Amino acid sequence: MVSTRPRIQDIARVSGLSSATVDRVLNSRPGVSAKAVDLVRDAIQKLAENGPEERSDLGVYDIILPRNAGLSTEYLAAAFRYHADLCKVQHRVTFVERLNPQSLCRALQACAEQGTSGVAFQALEDPTVRDTVSQMANRNIPLVTVVSDLSSMGVSYVGLDNRAAGRTAGYLMGLLTRGAGPIAVLWGGHLYRAHDEREFGFRSALRTDFPNLEILDVTCTQDDTEEAYERLSEVLKRDPKLAGVYCVGAGIIGAINALKRHAGGSSSFVIGHNLTANTRDFLLQRRMEVVIHQDMTAIAEKALQFLVSGADKPRSLRGEVSISIVTRENISNHLNLDMLRDYMVKH
C-alpha cells in the first residue's frame, strides 16, 4: 500500500515547530529537546487519526500517460486511480498524444503551473522533454517515470528492467524456434527508451545463445494496430514462413491479424508484452506463446509511494517490478487483470 506518512510541513504545522526542528527529530539528529520529540510524536498521531483527507498540504499528484496506446496503458491509468483512491490521495490523470514530445512537455509544464505535488509520467527520449524535466527537477518537484525512463536525469523510475525483459524474450524465442529463423521484430518507436532496451536485449540474447537465428526485419509501428498490421504484412509478403515474431510494444492485435491473413497456414511463434484481455485471448487461442508481463498495479503503487515519500526531499529512486512469463497454462495467476477491468468500467 502507498505510504501516507505525513510530510514534514504537515507535522510542523500541527506541532507548532519549525520544519528544520521536525527534520532533526525524524532523523534522530542531535540538538532537539525531549519536548520537541513529544510534540512531533503527538502531531504524527493526530495526523494519522485524522487521515490523509484532512491534510490540507498534501496537494494533488499528477499522472501523465499516452492516449490510444493500448489496453495495458488503460490498465495502468486504472491502477493509478485505484491506489490513489484507496489511500485517499488527490490525483489527476492526463492523457497526451502518443509519441509526441511537445504534447508531453505541455502537460508537464501545465502540472508545474497548477502547483502539482509530484508527477508520474511515461517518458519520451527527446531533448525538449529532458529540458522540461530538468526545469521541474530544479524546482524540487518530485518526478517518477513509469514503464519507460530517462537516462542520467536523476529522476525516479518504476517499471521493468527492459533490457532483461528483452533478453528473456530472445532466450525463449530461441528455444521455441530451436534456433531456426527468420524472426521479425516489431517495435513501437525510437522515443521509448524501453523499446530500445528490449530490442537490444532480444538481439543480445540471440547473439549469445542462438547465433545462427536470423532477424529478418525490424519495423517501427508507432504503437499503432493498423501500422503493425501493414508493416508485418509487408514482411510476410516477402517471406510468409516466419519462424517467429517479437512484438516489443503495442500493436499486437495488428501483428496477429497479419499472421492470420498472410502466413499461408504456417505457424509462427509469437512473443509480446503485457497481459491484457486481448493477449490473454491470444494465449488461450494458441495465437501467442508467451507474454512478458509487468504488473501495472505494482507500478502504480510503487510510483505513488515514491511521489508521496519524496514530497519533502525529491530524490532519485529505482523501483523495478518483476518480469513475469505468462503462458496459457498460468493465466489464472494474474487475477488482478479482472480487478482493473472492473475498475475501468466503474470509473
UniProtKB/TrEMBL annotation:
<dbReference type="Pfam" id="PF13407">
    <property type="entry name" value="Peripla_BP_4"/>
</dbReference>
<protein>
    <submittedName>
        <fullName>LacI family transcriptional regulator</fullName>
    </submittedName>
</protein>
<keyword id="KW-0805">Transcription regulation</keyword>
<dbReference type="InterPro" id="IPR025997">
    <property type="entry name" value="SBP_2_dom"/>
</dbReference>
<keyword id="KW-0238">DNA-binding</keyword>
<dbReference type="InterPro" id="IPR000843">
    <property type="entry name" value="HTH_LacI"/>
</dbReference>
<keyword id="KW-0804">Transcription</keyword>
<dbReference type="InterPro" id="IPR028082">
    <property type="entry name" value="Peripla_BP_I"/>
</dbReference>
<dbReference type="InterPro" id="IPR010982">
    <property type="entry name" value="Lambda_DNA-bd_dom_sf"/>
</dbReference>
<feature type="domain" description="HTH lacI-type">
    <location>
        <begin position="6"/>
        <end position="47"/>
    </location>
</feature>
<dbReference type="Pfam" id="PF00356">
    <property type="entry name" value="LacI"/>
</dbReference>
